[in-house]
Design a protein that fits this description.
This protein has one domain: Fumarate Reductase Cytochrome B subunit (Up-down Bundle). The protein is built from 11 helices and 2 strands; from the N terminus they run βααααααααβααα. A two-stranded antiparallel ribbon has the order 1-2. It is elongated. The model has no long low-confidence stretch (mean pLDDT 95). Bound molecules: protoporphyrin IX containing FE. The site of protoporphyrin IX containing FE (HEM) has 20 residues, from α1, α6, α7 and α8.
Length: 229
């Protein structure tokens, strides 16, 4: 059944919280480390103190590590779906990724195949963010806890690895935010109360809507009526 005759339930609230805690931690980790890289952000040390920022970095790091573990309990289906979707990457996702970039320059590309719960680009984003998360956590843990246990020559390599992952993560996050807010603002609704417009779901995630219809969760008639609004 549609919510308010117009919206489809897409994400459980547990998953929405999981997403936002991850996003806030990522930005805070980036911000609290920035003065180490550029004097432009040196003022953060002057305002908060270097030790406070270093401690804040560690606190957010712990939350960044624990969040997916807690998410596996509180938002199990949403978190597991991320992995299932990446593993289902196939031909339709490749075609999507070839054709979608034209939308970014204002064109309406033809022949994009219906997409599943996540589209080909989102699946790549999930794979990239998961890989970067793992590398950030491993390199961060070696730098933080490895002193005296792990050879210094290995620990030295963790500094560029940690920095490169943070850089790629931020570049991907900026692209992701632009796509979510600038290109597909309807998707952002899903990260507010967990629902998206039926018309948006039909247009961008046709295979997922087919699944919902097959499972009897919505009817074609409801989707048709919602699309008229
Ligand atoms: C202001 C910041 C952000 C906004 C507005 C935003 C928005 C969104 C939205 C709307 C979705 C749901 C897409 C859908 O239902 O199809 C989503 C999913 C997701 N977000 Fe974010 N997000 C933000 C920050 C971040 C950050 C910092 C990360 C990672 C470090 C991240 C990682 C993800 C991932 C992996 C997904 C699932 C796949 C995808 O949609 O790409 N997000 N985000």
């Amino acid at each position: 059944m549609l919510v308010n005759k117009n919206y489809i339930k897409r994400h459980k609230m547990g998953f929405v919280y999981f997403h936002w805690i991850n996003a806030i931690c990522f930005f805070m980790l980036f911000l609290t480390a920035l003065p180490l890289y550029t004097d432009t952000f040196r003022f953060l040390y002057d305002v908060f103190g270097a030790e406070t920022l270093q401690n804040a970095h560690r606190v957010f790091a712990v939350i960044f590590v624990l969040n997916p573990i807690v998410g596996l309990v509180t938002a199990n289906d949403g978190v597991c779906r991320l992995f299932r979707e990446v593993l289902s990457f196939g031909h339709d996702d490749i075609v999507f990724n070839q054709k979608f970039p034209a939308e970014l320059i204002g064109k309406e590309p033809k022949g994009i195949p219906p997409q599943s719960f996540y589209n080909g680009g989102e699946k790549m984003n999930i794979a990239l963010q998961t890989g970067l998360w793992a590398l950030l956590v491993i390199s961060g843990a070696v730098l933080w806890l490895g002193a005296g246990h792990i050879d210094n020559s290995i620990r030295a390599w963790m500094i560029p690895l940690h920095s490169i992952c943070a850089g790629f993560g931020m570049a991907a996050a900026i692209g992701h935010i632009y796509l979510a807010i600038g290109v597909n603002p309807d998707s952002f609704h899903g990260m507010r109360d967990g629902t998206v417009k039926a018309s948006y779901a039909q247009k961008h995630h046709g295979k997922w809507v087919d699944e919902l219809v097959a499972e009897g969760k919505v009817t074609r008639e409801e989707i048709k009526q919602a699309a008229k609004k």
